[in-house]
Amino acid sequence: MTTGSLKPSKEKKSRKSKQVVVLDEKTPLLPTKKDGVDGGFDEFDGASFTGAVFNLSTTIVGAGIMALPATMKVLGLVVGIAMIIFMAFLTEASIELLLRYSRTAKSVSYAGLMGDAFGKYGRMLIQLCVIINNIGVLVVYMIILGDVLSGTTSSGIHHAGVLEAWFGQHWWNGRFFVLLITTLVVFAPLASLKRIDSLGYTSALSVALAIVFLVVTVGITVFKLISGTVLMPRLFPDVTDLTSFFNLFTVVPVLVTAFICHYNVHSIDNELEDNTQIKTVVRTALSLCSSVYVMTSIFGFLLFGDATLDDVLANFDTDLGIPYSSLLNDVVRVSYAAHLMLVFPIVFFPLRLNLDGLLFPSARPLNSDNLRFASLSIGLIAVVFLGANFIPSIWDAFQFTGATAAVCIGFIFPAAVTLRDRYGIATNRDKILCIFMIVLAVFSNAVAIYSDTYALFKKNPTQRE
């Protein structure tokens, strides 16, 4: 992903007015206008507001939503919901800083903005972080799909997958084979699309499937509330000593990952028909996703309480104590599995773009080089597939990516660009906010890493015994 700019004589507002863009080594990998690089863009007049909202919403609502009920188990409902809302506002503020400095620097990519502020190494650093984060997120998607379709084992208890429940255990519905077929039949074709706006309809469908999951979960919980079979949930965290206090911070990487969408904002902005709407797109998408997050966290935790697993979908394999329990379990799991399949290419798109920018910074645009495009796509899909078969749980993946790459992408880098303030446009309020974001991000994630490491070393002696 490289830095680029348009002719200074005319400000970019609508894609409907045809303008000529000079192509050189600084042209962005994602076209910002209709150009002649790839004939496939000749009829592209820009993405709609609705399509942009759905694409950004799909970027946000991915696998993180499945781990949010488990964060309520750690924080309690009151603190947990407050943290989700707080993270939404903090995310909106960091994206606003990114967009403001991108406009001023005439950067059409996150990497271009980091390059403008910190030079070549700044550009390479953000590209590396996006690669690490997105690989981790896609691995989580595949892990969840494996859990849903083939089952998972937690604390010695096996939770049967949908295919296991329907057909029994066979070699062809084992995790490896199911993920292999899903990768070849679903992920590979969707990942072969060269323009993110081509995914507008699949994004809309994926958001609809996420809402189906939410509606069914809410309906089940309300039924059980009326029948009086839901226990009173814990409202506040249970802090008894210093270790339990530090354990509260382990949810921070999960919450950070749940809201990371910064790597796709520029791509969506570049394709938006009227890019003055991008701030409204961001606010609309964040409002929609925050509402879904809050509802899922409340009703998911109410439904399963302290038995909530790291991946709440794995809880939907038992008798829920309501009519048609088995059918509803399958609807919940299958609808969200389909949602993740459709989200996969949205996250894969910037992953491929950033890896290409890191490895081939001076090459011609990726969408005009089919061999490079195919090679990167195949290599990345293979890495994600292997990771999903060897990493044990989504909580482990979230802890790693959320505490490292995700927090840099979402908060540390936007704050660093603002504090660098090459163009003198930062206000005192901006600088105070940025210092707060950096201190909060570094402290919270450092404590989270310490707590996870401590728990790991404390657990190992027990396992050896």
UniProtKB/TrEMBL annotation:
The chain crosses the membrane at residues 49-68, 74-99, 124-144, 176-193, 205-226, 246-265, 285-304, 334-353, 373-391, 397-420, 432-451. Signal peptide: none annotated. Keywords: Amino-acid transport, Membrane, Transmembrane, Transmembrane helix, Transport. It is a multi-pass membrane protein. It is found in: Membrane. Residues 1-20 are annotated as: Disordered. GO terms for cellular component: organelle membrane. Its main location: membrane. Residues 46-450 form the Amino acid transporter transmembrane domain. GO terms for biological process: amino acid transport. This is Transmembrane amino acid transporter family protein. It comes from Forsythia ovata. The lineage of its organism: Eukaryota, Viridiplantae, Streptophyta, Embryophyta, Tracheophyta.
